[in-house]
């Protein structure tokens, strides 16, 4: 799958930042239940896509990094998953 420029990708996603080979965002929720609810909904979508996030949760915060390991960079799969996260978080 074709790799995209992470900076270009991040510019079109609210609150996302582009790194060398990834895009990243910190999501904040009202409490742990909301954060974990978000992670649960995304886990189901991600597994159906066979495309899994790197993420770290403490209480109401979820730090997300998206990259496509098989491609060694950011691909359309990361864009699709980031968009699903935006929908699930709002
Ligand atoms: C074998 C399996 O399909 C692959 O390892 C999938 C699983 N989930 C994945 N997730 C991510 N983020 N990148 C991948 O390249 C990837 N590959």
From TrEMBL:
Q: Which CDD domains match?
A: PCD_DCoH_subfamily_b
Task: State a single Pfam family of this protein.
Answer: Pterin_4a
For this protein, the record's InterPro entries field holds:
PCD_sf (IPR036428), Pterin_deHydtase (IPR001533)
Keywords assigned by UniProt, alphabetized: Lyase
Its family? Belongs to the pterin-4-alpha-carbinolamine dehydratase family.
Q: What is its EC number?
A: 4.2.1.96
Task: Give the organism the record lists.
Answer: Algimonas arctica
Q: Which residues form a coiled coil?
A: none
Q: Which GO terms describe its biological process?
A: tetrahydrobiopterin biosynthetic process
Q: Extract the NCBIfam families matched here.
A: PRK00823.1-2, PRK00823.1-3
Signal peptide (residue range) = none
Q: What is this protein called?
A: Putative pterin-4-alpha-carbinolamine dehydratase
Catalytically driven reaction(s): (4aS,6R)-4a-hydroxy-L-erythro-5,6,7,8-tetrahydrobiopterin = (6R)-L-erythro-6,7-dihydrobiopterin + H2O
Superkingdom of the source species: Bacteria
């Amino acid at each position: 799958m074709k790799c995209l420029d992470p900076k270009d990708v991040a510019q079109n996603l609210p609150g996302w930042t582009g790194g060398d080979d990834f895009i990243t965002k910190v999501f904040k929720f009202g409490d742990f239940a909301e954060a974990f609810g978000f992670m649960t909904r995304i886990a189901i979508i991600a597994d159906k896509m066979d495309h899994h996030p790197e993420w770290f949760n403490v209480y109401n915060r979820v730090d997300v990094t998206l990259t496509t390991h098989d491609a060694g960079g950011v691909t359309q799969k990361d864009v699709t998953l980031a968009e699903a996260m935006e929908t699930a978080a709002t």
